[in-house]
Write a structure and sequence with these properties.
It is built from one helix and 21 strands. It is mainly beta. A five-stranded mixed beta sheet has the order 17-21-20-19-18, with no helix packed on it. A four-stranded antiparallel beta sheet has the order 1-2-3-4, with no helix packed on it. Strands 5-6-7-8 form a four-stranded antiparallel beta sheet, with no helix packed on it. The longest helix has 18 residues. The radius of gyration is 20 Å and the shape is globular. It binds (2R,3S,4R,5S)-2-(hydroxymethyl)piperidine-3,4,5-triol. (2R,3S,4R,5S)-2-(hydroxymethyl)piperidine-3,4,5-triol binds next to strand 5 and strand 13.
């Protein structure tokens, strides 16, 4: 009996070792399998990244085949090799009445740091359990530590508006904003957040009504750039880029910034975030999700360099690239 047990343990650990492959990455390979430093697939979809004391932290949706299982956080010093930190925000498995009761949908989490309160504040798109995508709310959670665990605070429709795909943006002066798809995704809106970043203020404006979602924003010099997708469920579509020198508009449509094979479908992906690279002037990475609705956990990541040259933005497909290839923007 004892021998059988030992044999089973040895065999099982062999299977485990064989299935978990840890690779030391030296380059980005968009849309390829990307494992964490333990050799498990990175499970952080619709995500965003912040930089804290020499490390990047990647927050994203933890997905099962279809299930929404909370928000994961990973850390990395080099943007290529990611260590799984923890489930940063869990669904509530105890209180079935909670807005984030197990069975809810949490999408597109973004985290920013509030210098005044010393808290990391997470906003995400929340759909209530059993209601499909009807609730259209924003959820807010906080933590004193970047890796969490985050405490759920509240969920609401900002100023009464439906809120689905979303992102957060913290400006250089510390003011922060929530950019969100509203009115059944026909409108894209922006609201300035309260000083503690926990609520929207009444400064809440329509950006444009082009039926767009998946907002990803960045600032270069005096301009704000906003990448969005069309609304075709999990299927990819054409991206567009808007520019403004004021977050509340007017926003000018600059067309599709993607270049290369399948660029008219965002290379098979959908925008989620634009990440400023530390220590490189005006260097940004475009982050997108290549969704696999039949097995959401296996949705892949498309990370590509953004080039900004005198206000002209280009995102060119690359099979394989590294940060050395990134040029400072003009
Ligand atoms: C597109 C959105 O961008 C995703 O985040 C997700 O909500 C899917 N629609 C669901 O169909």
């Amino acid at each position: 009996m004892k021998r059988i047990l030992i044999l089973t343990v040895v065999l099982l650990s062999g299977v485990y070792l064989a299935s978990a492959q840890s690779t030391r990455y030296t380059a980005f390979e968009p849309a390829s399998v990307w494992n964490d430093t333990d050799g498990n697939i990175i499970n952080a979809h619709g995500g965003g990244v912040i930089f804290v004391k020499n490390k990047y932290y990647w927050f994203g949706e933890k997905r099962g085949r279809g299930a929404s299982e909370g928000v994961n956080v990973y850390s990395s010093p080099d943007l290529l090799n990611w260590k799984f930190e923890r489930l940063a925000l869990a669904t509530d498995t105890v209180n079935a009445q909670s807005d984030i009761a197990r069975g809810c949908i949490m999408e597109r989490p973004k985290v920013i740091y509030n210098d005044k309160t010393g808290q990391y504040v997470m906003w995400f798109h929340l759909e209530l359990k059993g209601q499909g995508y009807k609730a259209a709310r924003a959820g807010v959670a906080v933590s004193e530590n970047v890796t969490g665990p985050f405490r759920f605070i509240n969920s609401f429709r900002p100023n009464g508006h439906m809120s689905r795909d979303m992102t957060l943006f913290k400006d250089d002066n510390g003011d922060a904003y929530h950019i969100y798809s509203s009115r059944e995704n026909y409108d894209l809106r922006i609201s300035k957040l309260s000083d503690d970043y926990l609520f929207p203020t009444s400064k809440d404006t329509l950006l444009f009504s082009n039926h767009r979602e998946a907002p990803a924003i960045f600032k270069h010099k005096k301009n704000y750039y906003l990448i969005t997708s069309g609304c075709t469920g999990w299927d990819p579509n054409k991206a567009s880029l808007h520019i403004a020198d004021n977050l509340f508009g007017p926003w000018k449509n600059l067309g599709d910034p993607m270049i290369g094979p399948n660029s008219e479908l965002t290379f098979g992906g959908q925008s989620t975030y634009v990440l400023p690279v530390q220590g490189k002037k005006g260097a940004f990475i475009f982050m997108a999700d290549k969704w696999n609705p039949r097995n959401l956990i296996d949705s892949r990541y498309i990370w590509l360099p953004v080039s900004v040259n005198d206000g002209k933005v280009e995102i060119r497909w690359r099979e394989r690239w590294d940060l050395k290839a990134m040029k400072d923007s003009k």
